[in-house]
Amino acid sequence: MKNGISTLSILPIRKEPSHRSEQISQLLFGELYSVLGQQNSWLQIRCCYDNYEGWIDGSQHFELNEKDFTNTATNNYGMALELVYSAASSTHSIPVVAGSSLPFFDGMNFRIAKEKFIYNGQAVLSEAKNTAMMERIALRYLNAPYLWGGRSPFGIDCSGFTQIVYKFLGIKLLRDAYQQAEQGSVVNFIEESQPGDLAFFANEEGKITHVGIILKEGKIIHSSGKVRIDKIDHFGINNETQKKYTHKLKIIKRFF
User: Rounded to an integer, what distance in angstroms lies between the CA atom of residue 233 and that of residue 218?
Assistant: First the structure.
């Protein structure tokens, strides 16, 4: 089986092997994947971080041999904190967005296979489970536009937002909201919720379609139109701009 790593700032993952197919997720710089199959110039992949499957353009594939893949997967990495900051090698530079992985990071340098890069922006180590950082990281994404399948400050969906924020905490979430709702432990009442808990919301059929991060003082930060802060109570999200409830609360989960 072939394995690869994203060497692009943002690598779109499609539902079907076509540029016209919807984007269902993204790989950020430095994230690993395995190749499951091929159709014409398209590769079917599985993301190593969350096991999400989809298709990427084969011209955007960067292959890692088995040794480099295993070493990269089993070593600690840095995570870029800057919304966007360039990493430079001896041959080129590339914009790296927040949430990207920096393999073999030592505080300034990282490498992909044998290529060495310098990154002078803010970054944290992958093993640092500092929950006090949660709100500060989440607020960095404030006003980022909503984008179906997005995981970057330049376009992010609701579950991509929660996944990336939790990635900074060293906590792995699955990709979609309904999948994330199956993780963690249940918080029975909104009054018992704590900052950092995830609130999940359902449509009229009861299917979970939305997720956000609970903040202090009865507020929630979530991606809906853009990453925004609204009020939350036992009914759901109260959008002050629209002066109505926009999402019906289904369940609250705790992860730390």
Answer: 7
What mean pLDDT is predicted for residues 122-150? 87
Architecture of the structural domain at 3-125 = Roll (2.30)
pTM exceeds 0.85: yes
Q: What CA–CA distance (Å, rounded) separates 32 from 68?
A: 11
What's the CATH code, domain 131-254? 3.90.1720.10
Q: In sequence order, which residues have a C-beta less than 8 Å from that of residue 92 and are 6 or more positions away?
A: none
Q: Domain ranges for the chain, please list them.
A: 3-125, 131-254
Please state, in angstroms and rounded to a whole number, the distance separating the CA atoms of residues 59 and 63: 11
Spatial distance between the Cα atoms of 237 and 160, rounded to a whole number of angstroms: 19
pLDDT at 128 over 80: no
Bridge partners, residue 103, by sequence: 77
